[in-house]
Amino acid sequence: MFAAYAARIDKDQPLDGLELGDRPEPVVPDGWTTVDVKAASLNHHDLWSLRGVGLGEELLPMTLGCDGAGIDADGNEVVLHSVIGATGHGVGPDEKRTLLTEKYQGTFAERVAVPRWNVLPKPKELSFEEAACLPTAWLTAYRMLFTNAGVRPGDSVLVQGAGGGVATAAIVLGAAAGLRVFATSRDEAKRKRAVELGAEAAVETGARLPQRVDAVLETVGAATWSHSLKSLKPGGTVVISGATSGPNPPATELNRIFFLELKVVGSTMGSKEELASLMDFCAAKGVRPVIDSTLPLDRAREGFAKMAEGELFGKVVLTV
Prior knowledge:
Elements: E1 2-6, E2 18-22, E3 32-41, H1 44-50, E4 62-63, E5 69-72, E6 77-80, E7 83-84, E8 98-99, E9 111-115, E10 119-121, H2 128-131, H3 134-148, E11 156-159, H4 165-176, E12 180-185, H5 188-196, E13 201-204, E14 213-218, H6 225-230, E15 232-240, H7 254-259, E16 263-266, H8 272-285, E17 291-296, H9 300-308, E18 315-319
Parallel strand pairs: 11-12, 11-14, 12-13, 14-15, 15-16, 17-18
Antiparallel strand pairs: 1-2, 1-4, 3-5, 3-9, 3-18, 5-6, 6-10, 7-8
Helix pairs in contact: 3-4, 3-8
C-alpha cells in the first residue's frame, strides 16, 4: 500500500528523512481493526518524529500521521482517537500511552490498524477532511480550554501564535463557546484572519493587550513565555501544550508566578470522551475546522514543507 513514512532520522533537515512509496499492509493484533483512510491531517508531531523526537531509529521505517478518518472494516464512517494504550485497550494494562507513529504505524497510508476501542463514529455533519483535523490539534485545544484553563463563557483568553493548528482551533472553539478571545501573531494577515474567525482583537507578538486575561493558551514556548505571564490577571492560568520556539525561556519569572498566584498547567492531547464531546460540539454548533489546504497523499512532501516553513493558517489535510 502507498504511504508517507519516516525512513531516516535527521534532526537538522527532517524532510530529508521523509519517503513516499510502498509499505506492507498493517498487522492486526487481537482486539484491533483496520480503517481505510480517506483523510489525514498533518501535525507538528510529524515533523518532530522525523527529527527523532519520540521515535527511535530501531522502529524505522515508520508510517507517519496521527490523525485520520475513514471507513472501518464494517463499512462505518469513523474517526480515530490517536492515543494508543491510555486505558490499556488493545495493548495490555502496563503499556504506557503513546501517539500513533511513536510505536505503531500511522495514518498517512491507504490503511491503518488501531485498537477497536480507538474508533469513534464520524458525525454525518462533518466531511472526512474536517473530521481528520480533530483528533490531535483540535482535541488539544478543546482540552486546554474546557478542561484545564477553567474558563467559562464571558471569561477572556489569550491564544499565542495564531495560525498554527492548535491556536486556530482555540480561537474558533473559544469564540463559539462565548469566551472573549485575543490572539497574537507576527504576521499581519494571520492577525486579520484570527479576528475573522472570532477573536476580539489580534496584536503583534509581545504587544500589550487591551486588557489582562483569565487564561493564556501557550504553544509557542520560550519566545512568548514572558508575554504570557504578563498578560494574565492575578490568579490567572497559563496552559501549555507545546513549545515550538523552544522549551527554555530566558527567565522563568517565578516571582511573578507566586506573587500574582498564577497557575501553570500542562496539557497533552485529550481523552476519547473529550474527542466525542468535541465532535458533538462541532456538529451541533456548526463549528468547522479551519483547513489551510488539501493535498493528495502523493503530494505529502509539499504539505510537510509548508508546515515546516510556518506558511499556513489552519490544517493541511492529505486525502487518500
